[in-house]
Automatic annotation (TrEMBL):
This is Sulfurtransferase-like selenium metabolism protein YedF. It comes from the Bacteria. InterPro entries: Se_metab_YedF, TusA-like. Belongs to the sulfur carrier protein TusA family.
Length: 197
């Protein structure tokens, strides 16, 4: 069994280190020591998303994962370039405002844009919120209800964990889930289309 300690590492390093270790392990078991919170959630989602089994053990001051199984290649690794063109439609929202004009107008435009998505016949597969965009997915945002409805319609709504921590809003997340920069970058590279309002 191979061992890896990613405690104390900032996002997205725990996921990146686990990815490298799994590739090097070539099917051997991997035991990972990691912190609770975003590292635990992100590594678990990453491993399970690739077909690995994750056995979790709580330790004093953190967690240990035993990761086993063959794993499956990512869409980019497994499919020819033509198949990548059939990937997801991704929307990246990097601000709580739209455009470069007055702040109040920008916030109104972004609110109206997100609410308008419910009236469209074609929706994005995933919406990533980064930077001040995460403020749209927390308690008190005027579009939380809309984002939850988009989630009910199959849109994956995900906010950057580092950004939520920066604004001290992780506990206030009211729509969707938390993600990391590795997942955002990988999804965008495999996307059929990336949109930025």
């Amino acid at each position: 069994m191979n061992n890896l300690d990613v405690r104390g590492m900032a996002c997205p390093l725990p996921v990146v280190q686990v990815k490298r270790a799994l590739e090097a392990a070539q099917g051997a078991e991997l035991r990972v020591l990691l912190d609770d919170g975003a590292p635990r959630e992100n590594v678990k989602r990453f491993a399970q998303g690739r077909g690995y089994r994750v056995q979790e053990e709580q330790l004093e001051g953190g967690f240990a994962f035993t990761i086993t199984g063959p794993g499956t290649p990512t869409a980019r690794e497994a499919a020819p370039a033509a198949a990548v063109a059939a990937g997801p439609t991704v929307m990246l929202i990097g601000s709580d405002r739209m455009g470069d004009g007055p702040e109040d107008l920008g916030r109104l435009l972004m609110k109206n844009f997100i609410m308008t998505l419910l009236d469209l016949s074609e929706l994005p597969d995933r919406i990533f919120f980064v930077n001040t965009g995460v403020l749209l997915a927390v308690e008190g945002s005027e579009v939380v209800e809309t984002l939850n409805e988009l989630g009910n319609r199959g849109v994956e709504v995900l906010s950057c964990g580092i950004c939520l921590d920066f604004f001290k809003k992780k506990e206030s997340l009211a729509a969707g889930g938390v993600t990391n920069m590795f997942t955002i970058a990988e999804t965008m590279l495999n996307a059929r289309l990336v949109l930025r309002p």
